[in-house]
């Protein structure tokens, strides 16, 4: 098995992992591109490349190439972890597009959970109603902002929390 095949395997798996992260959304219309999910897929792909290379070192005799793959995996891991944790690339529309599938997951788990205690069922129903309302609000804001972008900060809004 050559290095090209190894790279194709990692790339394919990373793309598949990115798609799999959307399977637990409540509705297809709640699926939006999410930078955070992309960074997480890269983080997982880098981790997989590192671990697989360690397990398959005997299959790949070129020590320099192996070292480069391990080093690149660590760099991609570190960079994608920083991007996930810092959210440095995520603006207001990207944030809402990432939050919609996140809220949709809460709807799915709350709707499908087998809850016996009526207090817990009531809480789950409140979560469903709140998340669906917030999804609708974010979708409307995304559409509005994409039609006519507004200034970065609007008067009367509370300051951003650290």
From TrEMBL:
<protein>
    <submittedName>
        <fullName>DUF305 domain-containing protein</fullName>
    </submittedName>
</protein>
<feature type="transmembrane region" description="Helical">
    <location>
        <begin position="6"/>
        <end position="26"/>
    </location>
</feature>
<dbReference type="Pfam" id="PF03713">
    <property type="entry name" value="DUF305"/>
</dbReference>
<dbReference type="InterPro" id="IPR012347">
    <property type="entry name" value="Ferritin-like"/>
</dbReference>
<feature type="transmembrane region" description="Helical">
    <location>
        <begin position="65"/>
        <end position="84"/>
    </location>
</feature>
<keyword id="KW-0472">Membrane</keyword>
<feature type="transmembrane region" description="Helical">
    <location>
        <begin position="38"/>
        <end position="59"/>
    </location>
</feature>
<keyword id="KW-0812">Transmembrane</keyword>
<feature type="domain" description="DUF305">
    <location>
        <begin position="93"/>
        <end position="153"/>
    </location>
</feature>
<dbReference type="InterPro" id="IPR005183">
    <property type="entry name" value="DUF305_CopM-like"/>
</dbReference>
<keyword id="KW-1133">Transmembrane helix</keyword>
């Amino acid at each position: 098995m050559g290095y090209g095949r190894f790279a194709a395997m990692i790339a394919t798996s990373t793309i598949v992992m990115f798609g799999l992260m959307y399977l637990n959304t409540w509705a297809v219309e709640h699926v939006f591109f999410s930078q955070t999910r992309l960074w997480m897929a890269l983080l997982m792909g880098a981790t997989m490349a590192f671990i697989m290379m360690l397990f398959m070192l005997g299959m790949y005799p070129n020590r320099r190439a192996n070292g480069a793959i391990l080093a690149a995996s660590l760099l991609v891991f570190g960079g994608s972890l920083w991007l996930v944790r810092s959210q440095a690339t995520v603006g207001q529309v990207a944030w809402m597009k990432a939050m919609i599938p996140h809220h949709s997951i809460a709807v799915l788990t709350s709707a499908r959970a087998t809850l016996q205690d009526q207090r817990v069922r009531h809480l789950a129903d409140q979560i469903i109603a709140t998340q669906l309302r917030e999804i609708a609000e974010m979708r409307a804001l995304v559409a509005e902002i994409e039609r006519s972008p507004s200034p970065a900060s609007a008067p009367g809004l509370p300051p951003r929390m650290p």
